[in-house]
Amino acid sequence: MNPSRLYDVVCIGNYTRDTIISPSGTKYVDGGGMNYAAHAAARLGLNVAVVTRLAKEDERVVTKFTAAGIDCFPTFTPRSTEMCLDYPTSNPDIRNLSVNAVAGAITVGEVENIEMKAAVISSSLRGEVGLDVIRALKTKKTFLAADMQGFVRVLQGKSLVYASWTEMQATLACLDVLKSDAVEAEYLTGEADIHKAAEIYTRMGPKEIVLTHKDGLLILADGKSYEMGFYPVQMDGRSGRGDTCIGAYVAMRLSKPAHEAGIWAAAVTSLKMEKLGPFDRPASDVESFIRLKYDHGSIY
Question: Which domains can be identified in the chain, with CATH numbers?
Answer without folding.
Answer: 6-206 (3.40.1190.20)
